[in-house]
Recover the amino acids of this structure.
């Protein structure tokens, strides 16, 4: 039985966005994140050789992590991610055809939305969770208001502008957070990546972290 996105968001509800990562880096970076407890790793498709990186991560952490692609804009990209072993499709926007293609492939769909209209359209298309983006343009109170009108079992993952200082507040009104440049950026030393990854884990509300 395949795990759901909610399973992967426990006990650490953080999605690591590895934008710009290259295949020669993914093993070392992945090992650091997995050892700390991260269980969802996303390689945006505007990274160098993204399908190679996804394939490496999917093989290395098969069954122990959810690996997939971000910045998926076209439905024809979905099978390419699946062929690389990815099981997660994340987008900055809502393209219902991408969502439908993702679900046809039996993968987890997390499209980007900002308004209630987009949120309901995404759910109607079959989305498993909603990426609230850009997070730095909203407040936790916005997420709370949005959640109030959505079905109670809707999963929200805030992405963009989430940092260790505001993480707990955003998680009080959502189910997870996508962490990008605050966690990884090209050229960042592995010791710094580890330190920043730990900062987010330590900033989790009590009871969420297994640290």
């Amino acid at each position: 039985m395949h795990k759901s996105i909610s399973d992967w968001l426990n006990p650490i509800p953080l999605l690591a966005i590895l934008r710009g990562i290259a295949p020669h880096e993914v093993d070392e970076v992945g090992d650091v994140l997995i050892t700390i407890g991260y269980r969802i790793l996303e390689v945006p498709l505007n990274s160098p050789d993204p399908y190679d990186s996804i394939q490496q991560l999917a093989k290395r952490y098969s069954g122990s992590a959810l690996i997939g692609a971000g910045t998926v804009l076209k439905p024809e990209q979905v099978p390419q991610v699946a062929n690389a072993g990815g099981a997660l499709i994340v987008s900055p926007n809502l393209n219902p055809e991408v969502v439908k293609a993702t679900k046809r492939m039996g993968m987890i769909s997390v499209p980007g939305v900002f308004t209630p209209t987009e949120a309901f359209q995404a759910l109607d298309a079959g989305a498993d969770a909603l990426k609230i983006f850009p997070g730095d343009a909203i407040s936790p109170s916005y997420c709370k208001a949005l959640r109030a009108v959505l079905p109670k079992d809707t999963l929200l993952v805030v992405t963009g502008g989430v940092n260790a200082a505001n993480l707990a507040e955003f998680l009080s009104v959502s189910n997870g957070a996508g962490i990008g440049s605050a966690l990884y950026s090209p050229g960042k030393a592995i010791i710094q990546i580890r330190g920043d990854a730990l900062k987010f884990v330590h900033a989790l509300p009590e009871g969420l972290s297994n640290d």
The longest strand covers residues 40-44. DSSP finds nine helices and nine strands in the chain.
